[in-house]
Amino acid sequence: MKTILIIILTPAIVGLIYFFYLGYKSQNGSAPGLVNSKLSPCPDKPNCICTEFADDQSHFTDAIKYQSLSLDNITNAIESTGGIISTTQNNYIAATYTSRIFKYVDDFEIRIDSENQVIHIRSASRVGHSDIGANLKRIENFKNALGLL
To answer: What pTM, to 2 d.p., does this model score?
Structure first.
């Protein structure tokens, strides 16, 4: 009986330790920022969503079209959905979201294209492979906080 319990509990404990390690590891780093005046493309993992590159369908969602949004509206929406703003520059905002249990840090970036009245968003996990849809849900929550859903 003890042997069976050890066989069952050992992988579970190792798995938990690994998830806590990934959470710790994700606390180092920062958002990639703008590259050639655009948000960075997503890597080849399914833990990133970006509105900037329509040709990358596995990571794409629609940008936000707006007519009258202020920077205060945007920053309030980020903060009301649990984000902590780390950078605000002209047309760019970077924020982080931290998960409750394992303390994973995800980057949330916004590029405001005032010429075309569009807000581009990139939400990406810093570590791991899959996000189980967390980044797309975060973008939807952000749109909802802006009153656009």
So the answer is: 0.89
